[in-house]
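FORM 12-B: Structure-to-Sequence Request
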């Protein structure tokens, strides 16, 4: 069971609804399903929502700086890396596909790289949410910072709901069971 759940993305209205903020969308959906309220955290640059079993965390920093916030929460709350769960976007997965893992390489994802570098290990749970690859000729940075097209919104909404289901499965049955049920 995971006790700290981080939804990674970029802060501010200009990034709301962008592909890079799928991690934030998922933790917000977990909070909605659990009828949890968000509040600012005084000692960390983040918003938090306290559930029965886990603390949801929405860092108020850019994706590639997320590790600093993750480390601060781990140290302050006395948690181990294997007790954290990080939710991010993934452009190597087709839109709507999920990939749960108990650890492993950041695979080029700067948010995961920041977390791994800051806490000194790749041994933390993560959920990668597929946003699809950039179209031919479109720069990756431009793609991930763009909003979803109208025709993609149903797939996005379904993926976010499946992500919440996957998280709940992890919490109830463990990540191995959730991986067998939800990984593409």
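FORM 12-B RESPONSE
SEQUENCE OUT:
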């Amino acid at each position: 069971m995971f006790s700290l759940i981080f939804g990674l993305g970029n802060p501010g209205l200009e990034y709301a609804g962008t592909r890079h903020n799928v991690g934030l969308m998922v933790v917000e959906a977990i909070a909605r399903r659990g009828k949890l309220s968000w509040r600012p955290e005084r000692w960390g640059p983040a918003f938090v929502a306290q559930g029965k079993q886990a603390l949801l965390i929405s860092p108020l920093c850019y994706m590639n700086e997320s590790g600093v916030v993750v480390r601060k929460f781990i140290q302050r709350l006395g948690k181990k890396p294997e007790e954290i769960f990080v939710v991010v976007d993934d452009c190597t997965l087709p839109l709507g596909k999920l990939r749960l893992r108990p650890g492993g390489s950041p695979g080029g994802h700067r948010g995961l790289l920041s977390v791994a570098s800051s806490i000194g290990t790749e041994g933390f749970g993560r959920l990668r949410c597929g946003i699809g690859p950039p179209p031919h000729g479109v720069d990756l940075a431009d793609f991930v910072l763009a909003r979803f097209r109208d025709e993609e919104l149903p797939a996005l909404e379904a993926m976010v709901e499946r992500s919440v289901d996957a998280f709940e499965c992890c919490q109830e049955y463990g990540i191995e069971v959730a991986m067998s049920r939800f990984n593409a």
